[in-house]
């Protein structure tokens, strides 16, 4: 599919949003980053700098503003869940037009409020698998050998999802469209939750987590697999374990990096999503609940 030049807004040009903005701008699309005044000033003056083992080092000129002032073709929502409510004030519903909203957020509970704020047929489910960090405003380090986006929207016309996937592939991302948004979100959560909770709780990268805390890891994987099956989105947890066993030993979760930097943690979006679904479906998850409580206590 040939994708014409599009106008893309990125709400939150951090590790994920900055990578998306940089690669789409490099591919020739018009990119508008929405952020706070300090970041906006930096981006206007110096653009986005990307350092990536996969895509190489590059510089991209982007537009930047504190609020969406004209309708784009696409809006990527890439802030942390802890900042979502405040960040959405930068995107008035009246300014969105008919843009497709693509939230690349952790957890599974964000679609309801987004579909209440914006037209439901313009909000898709989406996930990204990547390790990418904002090391300073406008400076992004992409350290994973992959960057893969999946889309699935029961409320969104299929052709819009196909167009968005083609746009992302044209910029260098892996991108695919799936039919079941619940399965899409739980596939991501089933991998993210154990990795985020355990690496943060033990202040350890993936290699140390899977070796020194393997019994706890296996217990959490079992519990999350049972919850996923109960919500109607069964996950191959052996495959999840295989991914964790094959991941670079020094890999860190974004939650662990947030903890190291003293930033707010997405404990509720990630661990809380599992606990709420477990409670709704009567699935006992004692190990996961203990981990969530310990991480929450650490965050203060």
From TrEMBL:
UniProtKB keywords: NADP, Oxidoreductase, Pantothenate biosynthesis
Enzyme category, top tier: oxidoreductase
Pathway the protein takes part in: Cofactor biosynthesis; (R)-pantothenate biosynthesis; (R)-pantoate from 3-methyl-2-oxobutanoate: step 2/2
Gene3D superfamilies listed in its UniProt record: N-(1-d-carboxylethyl)-l-norvaline Dehydrogenase, domain 2 (1.10.1040.10), NAD(P)-binding Rossmann-like Domain (3.40.50.720)
Catalytic activity: (R)-pantoate + NADP(+) = 2-dehydropantoate + NADPH + H(+)
Enzyme Commission (EC) number: 1.1.1.169
All copies of domain Ketopantoate reductase N-terminal, residue ranges: 8-145
Domain Ketopantoate reductase C-terminal residue range list: 185-297
Similarity annotation: Belongs to the ketopantoate reductase family.
Job of this protein: Catalyzes the NADPH-dependent reduction of ketopantoate into pantoic acid.
The protein, known as: 2-dehydropantoate 2-reductase
Originating organism: Streptomyces zingiberis
Lineage summary: Bacteria, Bacillati, Actinomycetota, Actinomycetes, Kitasatosporales
């Amino acid at each position: 599919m040939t994708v014409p030049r599009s106008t893309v807004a990125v709400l939150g040009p951090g590790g994920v949003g900055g990578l998306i903005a940089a690669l789409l701008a490099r591919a020739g699309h018009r990119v508008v980053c929405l952020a706070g005044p300090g970041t906006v000033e930096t981006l206007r003056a110096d653009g986005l700098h990307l350092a990536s083992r996969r895509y190489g080092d590059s510089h991209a000129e982007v537009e930047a503003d504190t609020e969406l002032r004209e309708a784009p073709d696409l809006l990527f929502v890439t802030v942390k869940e802890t900042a979502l409510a405040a960040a959405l004030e930068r995107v008035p519903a009246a300014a969105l037009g008919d843009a497709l909203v693509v939230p690349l957020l952790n957890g599974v509970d964000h679609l309801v409020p987004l579909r209440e704020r914006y037209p439901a047929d313009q909000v898709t489910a989406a996930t990204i698998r990547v390790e990418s960090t904002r090391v300073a405003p406008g400076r992004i380090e992409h350290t994973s050998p992959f960057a893969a986006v999946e889309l699935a929207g029961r409320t969104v016309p299929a052709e819009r999802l196909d167009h968005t996937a083609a746009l992302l592939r044209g910029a260098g991302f892996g991108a695919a469209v799936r039919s079941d948004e619940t399965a899409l979100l739980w596939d991501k959560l089933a991998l993210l939750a154990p990795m985020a909770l355990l690496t943060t709780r033990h202040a350890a990268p993936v290699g140390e987590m899977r070796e020194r805390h393997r019994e706890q890891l296996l217990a959490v994987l079992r519990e999350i697999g049972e919850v996923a099956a109960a919500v109607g989105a069964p996950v191959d947890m052996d495959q999840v374990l295989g991914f964790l066993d094959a991941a670079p030993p020094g890999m860190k979760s974004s939650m662990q990096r947030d903890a190291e930097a003293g930033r707010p943690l997405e404990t509720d979006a990630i661990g809380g999503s599992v606990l709420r679904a477990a409670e709704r479906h009567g699935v006992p998850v004692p190990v996961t609940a203990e981990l969530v409580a310990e991480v929450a206590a650490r965050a203060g």
